[in-house]
Specification:
The complex is a heterodimer of chains A (516) and B (301). Chain A contains 16 helices and 20 strands. With 516 residues, chain A is an alpha+beta fold. In chain A, the strands form 4 sheets. In chain A, strands 1, 8, 9, 10, 11, 12, 13, 14, 15, 16, 17 and 18 form a 12-stranded mixed β-sheet that branches. In chain A, strands 4-5-7-6 form a 4-stranded antiparallel β-sheet, with helices on one face. In chain A, helix 8 runs antiparallel to helix 10 (342-352), helix 9 runs antiparallel to helix 11 and helix 13 (422-430) packs antiparallel against helix 15 (445-456). Residues 1-42 of chain A have low confidence and may be disordered. By secondary structure, chain B is mostly helical. Chain B has a single domain (22-54, 100-300), classed as MetI-like fold (Orthogonal Bundle). Helix content of chain B is 73%, strand content 0%. Chain B is built from 11 helices and no strands. Chain B has helices spanning 13-33, 35-55, 90-125, 128-143, 146-157, 161-188, 191-198, 203-239, 251-258, 267-294, 296-300. Chain B starts with 12 loop residues before the first helix and ends with a helix. The chains are: A alpha+beta (516), B mainly alpha (301).
Chain lengths: 516, 301
């Protein structure tokens, strides 16, 4: 009997040990489905990310992976290069006239949409009108807030009439929410189901929550596309993406966690870039305890950004204010508390009439940003030091995006796209008629005025002055709590060559990527 | 048959009480005599002591205290299981997590045990129509794996301490119904219950004094095994991000979080995994030991 027990005991240990091992290899939190790691079929170039493609209409997307995936299908009039300068895309050149109030684009010839129609000025007019139509719900409609008319000048030129000189209009036009769409597809109303662009790849298939496949566009205007297909696969943990890379079932892993990216075997090439985005704790400032500016200030002073950066991404990045990059970058990062100050935080709580603190809930989505769990745990512990109780609610990616767009949260750990131009970044959140005013959760006439002043300023020095006031206004009112900017990592699978990662996260270089 | 028949002389209440006490004493010593039971008792004892210590603040450090100076330190005298990416002491976190796991597992088993036992007794003791209805519902619940049922319940109710317990508990109700109904069916037809019925004992007296004490052994085995599954189910739910949210310590969540650190900081994965293994093996062995102890065939040996 003793021997039988021993055998039973050993079997139990092996079984449970195996189960624990299997658990650790499974994808992490928020994922109620197993990782879909499959071996790449010949010719299938697999790009893996924890997130999944959420929507197909380029005008309404807000998820980073949607921008990356649809960025392979659609082109814009202009685009950013590696140095974040605006360079031609479907517009070959442009000129400002009439004191900066008219912007004329010359359009590229010989460009075809996937539906076979030829790109011309009518498509530009239809695309930009669709962006401006309120019923479209374009996430970046504010970028065209100064555009009063879009007029074709023959088939290969188009004129934008502006209400005032607008220094940010070009950087706004690089947005994928302002992609060039086919007049035919707009009329047919099929864009939400069947993408139809002019980019290096054409839409092939989409399995929501699982995969998104594009195929090479044989009539691409920019030359031959080397990869026949690119498949985006959702693998809900970055550790599993690393395993899939090692197993050669993934050719490109899009990662954010340095502890994963930096510990891949040395045979893997890992590119990294400080990306054009920022992490922030967005606050809904209209109701509840966060409507009180002093409560928000208490949060701003209690949060230790450097420690959050350390905990979430092992210090691989930089602490930032509202404007993370470029010549107008916010310095210091907060006008109120550039470094944590618990005494000031407690004084703010006292002034708010909540000396013992208050409670609120913050949402995260580890599907969309795997580092958000660690950010939340760090901030939660820091706020607890002054009596502020922050509950954490982790949501699946699609649920998070829905709640975020509806402003259905008290606080949200968010990763937002940045831009060298503060007007482009914030007019859509805080400007007059801002189309993301609901998730922004705050509005003030002072901010609206500063944004317009900054955009209309004629000299860099006066722009600098106005945008400094803008940053200062945002941080001293603790509108949101800006945290940090970190690196994006692209882990290249075996034999992958010719891929470069950009600060805008564009995957356009996939068109000339090869796999040996 | 007459009442003078020696086989049908019913014990007095005092005799019944002393018999139950004797059985209990016998059970404990039988449990200790079984190697499985002894190992189970020791492991479960350790886990329970650790959990109670954590509940009364007996951890070496505060489980939520984040120290930037001690981020990802390997095991040392100051931190026997090292520290995590927030500089928190892993021993303290694991002890706290064990406590939370036991609380959730305990409540889950209480829910499953009480609901399952009541339903099982009703199914076994009352008419066959009631029994048929209960057993068909049980069959339907059995068709869905307990962990999937748990996932569905948490997805519907939201993540949290109580919801985790409820989700796990509901999943394990059918097992208790099945385990209880069988013996109750057999006992219902046993000589002493039939005699009690002839003597006009109420249904309640028959149930609570003659049937329930006799299935206590089977139930105790089941409770111990269910605790093992529940600890594992709680860890699985937390691993998938459906357990109680931070700052509540949770072993499954610790395993999930440390997945990406396993190659650089193995101790962040080792300690919570070990705690889960010890708790699960402990309750399993205890269940095995109890089964040996209450099974008349193995007891005689």
């Amino acid at each position: 009997m003793g021997q039988k027990n021993l055998v039973r005991g050993v079997t139990a240990i092996v079984a449970i040990g195996g189960l624990a091992g299997a658990l650790s290899a499974l994808p992490a939190s928020g994922a109620a489905r197993p990782a879909t790691v499959r071996h790449a079929k010949s010719g299938n170039f697999v790009v893996a990310n924890t997130s999944s493609v959420q929507k197909l209409d380029p005008d309404v997307i807000t998820n980073f992976l949607d921008f990356q995936a649809l960025g392979l299908i659609y082109d814009q009039l202009v685009q950013f290069n590696q140095k974040l300068q605006v360079v031609p895309d479907l517009a070959t050149s442009w000129t400002f006239s009439n004191g900066g109030k008219v912007l004329t684009f010359q359009l590229r010839k010989g460009v075809k949409f996937d539906d076979g129609t030829t790109f011309n000025s009518a498509d530009v007019v239809a695309s930009l009108k669709r962006v401006q139509a309120p019923k479209t719900g374009d996430a970046s409609a504010s970028f065209l807030s100064t555009v009063t008319a879009v007029v074709p000048e023959g088939p290969n030129a188009v004129k934008l009439v502006l209400s005032r000189p607008d220094s940010s209009i070009l950087s706004g036009l690089t947005s994928q929410n302002l992609s060039m769409l086919s007049t035919k597809a707009i009329a047919a109303g099929t864009l939400a189901k069947k993408p139809d662009g002019t980019g290096p790849f054409a839409f092939s298939s989409w399995s929501p929550g699982n995969s998104f496949v594009v195929k090479a566009n044989g009539s691409y205007w920019g030359g031959k596309v080397t990869l026949p297909t690119v498949k985006f696969e959702t693998i809900p943990s970055e550790q599993s993406i690393a395993s899939a890379l090692e197993a050669n079932s993934v050719q490109l892993g899009l990662l954010t966690q340095p502890q994963v990216a930096n510990h891949l075997p040395s045979s893997f090439k890992v590119d990294k870039v400080l990306d054009l985005s920022y992490r922030a704790l967005m606050l809904q400032d209209k109701t509840g305890p966060l409507a009180n500016v002093n409560n928000r200030r208490a949060i701003a002073c209690a949060v230790n950004r450097k420690q959050v950066l350390g905990d979430a991404v092992f210090g691989q990045g930089q602490v930032v204010g509202p404007v993370p990059v470029g010549q107008f970058a916010t310095k210091p990062v907060s006008a109120l508390c550039p470094t944590p100050d618990l005494t000031k935080a407690k004084a703010a709580l006292q002034a708010a009439g909540d000396p013992s603190g208050f409670s609120f809930t913050a949402i995260t989505s580890t599907d969309l940003d795997p580092t958000s769990a660690a950010q939340a745990i760090a901030v939660q512990s820091q706020l607890a030091q002054v009596g502020i109780k922050m509950s954490i609610q982790n949501l699946a990616g699609d649920a998070y995006i829905q709640d975020w767009l509806k402003g259905n949260f008290q606080a949200a750990f968010a990763e937002n796209g940045a831009d060298p131009n503060p007007y482009t970044m914030y007019f859509r959140y805080f400007g007059t008629g801002a189309n993301l005013g609901v998730p922004a959760g705050y509005s003030s006439s002072a901010l609206q005025k500063l944004l317009v002043q900054g955009d209309a300023a004629t000299s860099t020095a006066s722009q600098q002055r106005v945008f400094n006031s803008l940053s200062s206004n945002l941080t001293s009112n603790a509108v949101w709590i800006w945290l940090f900017d970190s690196f994006d990592y692209a882990a290249l699978g075996k034999g992958v060559q010719g891929f470069t990662i950009t600060p805008t996260r564009s995957l356009q270089s996939l068109r000339s990527t090869t796999v040996s | 048959m007459t009442l003078a028949d020696p086989e049908l002389v019913l014990p007095t209440e005092a005799e019944e009480e002393s018999d139950v006490t004797a059985r209990r004493q016998g059970l404990l010593s039988a449990l200790w005599r079984s190697p499985n039971g002894r190992a189970g008792l020791i492991l479960v004892g350790l886990v329970v002591i650790a959990a109670i210590a954590a509940a009364f603040g007996g951890t070496p450090y505060s489980p939520t205290f984040q120290n930037p100076a001690t981020v990802l330190k390997s095991p040392s005298l100051a931190h026997p299981f090292g520290t995590d990416q927030f500089g928190r002491d892993i021993v303290s976190l694991v002890l706290d997590g064990l406590g939370v796991s036991l609380e959730i597992a305990g409540l889950a088993v209480l829910i499953a045990g009480v609901v399952g036992t009541v339903a099982g007794v009703i199914a076994g003791f009352l008419g066959r129509y009631v029994s048929a209805v209960i057993m068909r519902i049980t069959d339907m619940m059995f068709a869905i794996p307990a962990i999937l049922l748990g996932l569905a319940v948490v997805a519907a109710l939201g993540a949290g301490w109580l919801n985790s317990a409820l989700a796990i508990g509901i999943g394990y109700i059918p097992i208790f119904v099945r385990v209880v109904r069988g013996p109750v069916l057999a006992l219902r037809e046993s000589g002493y219950v039939r005699a009690g019925r002839v003597l006009g004992f109420s249904q309640g007296r028959l149930l609570f004094r003659h049937i329930l004490p006799n299935i206590a052994g089977v139930l105790s085995v089941q409770v111990s095994l269910a605790l093992a599954w529940s600890v594992l189910a709680e860890a699985s739910l937390s691993f998938l991000g459906l357990g109680p949210p931070p700052p509540t310590a949770s072993l499954g969540e610790m395993v999930a979080q440390s997945g990406s650190l396993a190659s650089t900081a193995w101790w962040t994965l080792a300690a919570p995994s070990l705690a889960i293994v010890v708790a699960v093996i402990g309750f399993n062995l205890l269940g095995d030991g109890l089964r040996d102890a209450v099974d008349p065939r193995t007891r005689r040996r």
